[in-house]
Amino acid sequence: MKKLLPLLAAAALACGVHAQDFEGTVTWKMRAEITDPELREKMDDAQARMASPEMQAKMQQAQAAMQSPQMQAMLQQNPAMRAMIEKQMAALPKPGAAPGGGPGSMFPSKFTFKVRGSRSLVQVEGGMFPMEILSFADQHVAYRLDRAAHTYRRMERPPESNSEPAATTQFKVTATGETARLLGYNCKRYLVEQAGGASQTTYSVWTTKDIAGLDAKKLSDLRVSRDRGPNFISQLDGVPLKMEINTPQAKLTMEAEAITPGALPADAFELPAGFVEATD
User: Fold this and answer.
1) What is the mean pLDDT of residues 92-118?
2) Is the pTM of this model over 0.85?
3) Per residue, what are the HEC states of the chain?
4) Measured CA distances, 150 to 79, 125, 155, 166, 168 (Å)
5) Tens digit of pLDDT for each residue in 75-85?
6) Would you kindly state where each structural domain of the chain is located, as residue ranges?
7) In degrees rounded to 5, what are phi and psi of residue 111?
8) Which CATH number fits domain 4-37+113-273: 1.10.260, 2.50.20, 2.60.40, 2.40.160?
9) Residues 6+ apart with CB under 8 A from 79
């Protein structure tokens, strides 16, 4: 399931990293449904244990320990550790809350993309892996930002000599001929299947060519990490506005909810002042 997240990020970045003729903000919402009864039962059981009175009491003790002068002094010297612990504590269920927010809470709930020239800012909210990535397409580099810790991590494109074959060769992309209108844009549907192998994951992707300046094909020109996950986005004709991912365990849907062209401040696409590179 975790391997689906790089794909979702790739789909999102398709709208931004090379959108030199488009400036503005794109937001996508995401829904997840666990369809495998055995997996759902395991997740429900685990979330119920986390929300039990015994676990809640232990969590309250841990929160109290966090406020001790000794712990506060230690965390003051290590902002990165403080940010990590605060994120972990915030993700845990609160007393009286529904167990874990439901099985789908492990997945992101929203993507926000801000694009200006060859630079983009991608914010992934919710789920187990919230993140914020600032990309400089013209420099083939991106930075993963941690605003709580005031740090960044460089995600540099690996040398071409060390690059494995493009992952797009692993997928069969078929234009279905089906059309629809999403957010007022004309879209057509593609069916994507893995070419060979035992994977049972399929993708239904709706794309549009009606948004001037956005081109999903250019995404393949930017590689900001060694593991970019399955990437068939560059084979699609148009920008994805909706993607349905069906696996044996779950169904995930990512759909654009707003596209807002407009000028954005240049300083939103620079490394924030005072941030330092993370070393751990």
Assistant:
1) 65
2) no
3) CCCHHHHHHHHHHCCCCCCCCCCEEEEEEEEEEECCHHHHHHHHHHHHHHCCHHHHHHHHHHHHHHCCHHHHHHHHCCHHHHHHHHHHHHHCCCCCCCHHHCHHHHCCCEEEEEEECCEEEEEEECCCCCEEEEEEHHHCEEEEEECCCCEEEEEECCCHHHCCCCHHHHEEEEEEEEEEEECCEEEEEEEEEECCCCCCCEEEEEEECCCCCCCHHHHHHCCCCCCCCCCCHHHCCCEEEEEEEECCCEEEEEEEEEEEECCCCHHHHCCCCCCEECCC
4) 8, 18, 17, 34, 36
5) 777 776 777 67
6) 4-37+113-273, 52-97
7) -120, 135
8) 2.50.20
9) 148, 149, 150, 151
d(CA 192, CA 175): 9
